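TASK: fixed-backbone design
INPUT:
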């Protein structure tokens, strides 16, 4: 499992997302954020690569500063560049579980869930855990087996759960996001004759996070 090397922050009406690095902005020292962008013809996975030069001493490969009230991107660096999303996947896993599951449901582990690699809770086939407790395992410890247990219970299967994830992503306007796994393990599959990868962009991830913390009917449960 490759952990997400980045941060997700939400405060004072702002959503900050960075991928693969650190994000440090001294907003008090800047009246405006100046962003100079050049577009190259180089393509990656059929997406146009954006190369950004800025004055923020920003080392993250991709980053977004978003106005949470409007979803307007105030600052972006390679924000539309498609990358593997790793454990940030679990934000959407939590959303789908909260909106479609019953927190008091007992969830039994399948052999598939028990076989998930580290980082994991260490469940065994047939072990039963309440959905509410699995969500704590998912979001606090990033356990891969907990994610699979949730997916198979709520979606009926890993594939069924991924369908719910992709439907929600589409509803949120995430046009460059594709979910295959509930835990963020790297994966590829064929869809409509095209090879799809488990991936997203910083901009789409900011939209997902903003929905999760503020616009989802279960946003209060997410904060718990």
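OUTPUT:
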């Amino acid at each position: 499992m490759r952990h997400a090397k980045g941060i997700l922050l939400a405060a004072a009406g702002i959503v900050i997302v960075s991928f693969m690095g650190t994000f440090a902005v001294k907003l008090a020292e800047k009246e405006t954020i100046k962003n100079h962008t050049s577009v190259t013809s180089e393509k990656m996975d059929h997406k146009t690569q954006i190369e950004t030069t800025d004055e923020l001493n920003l080392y993250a490969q991709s980053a977004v500063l978003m106005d949470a009230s409007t979803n307007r991107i105030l600052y972006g660096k390679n924000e539309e560049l498609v990358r593997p999303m790793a454990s940030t996947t679990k934000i959407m896993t939590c959303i789908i579980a909260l909106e479609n599951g019953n927190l008091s449901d007992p969830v039994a582990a399948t052999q598939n869930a028990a076989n998930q690699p580290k980082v994991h809770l260490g469940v065994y086939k047939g072990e039963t855990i309440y959905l509410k407790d699995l969500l704590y395992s998912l979001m606090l410890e990033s356990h891969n087996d907990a994610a699979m247990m949730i997916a198979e219970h709520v979606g009926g299967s890993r594939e069924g759960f991924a369908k719910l994830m992709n439907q929600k992503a589409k509803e949120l306007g995430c046009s460059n996001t594709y979910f295959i796994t509930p835990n963020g393990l790297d994966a590829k599959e064929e869809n409509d004759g095209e090879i799809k990868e488990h991936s997203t962009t910083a901009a789409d991830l900011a939209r997902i996070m903003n929905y999760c913390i503020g616009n989802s009917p279960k946003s209060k449960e997410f904060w718990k």
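COMMENT: The chain has two domains: 6-77, 86-223.
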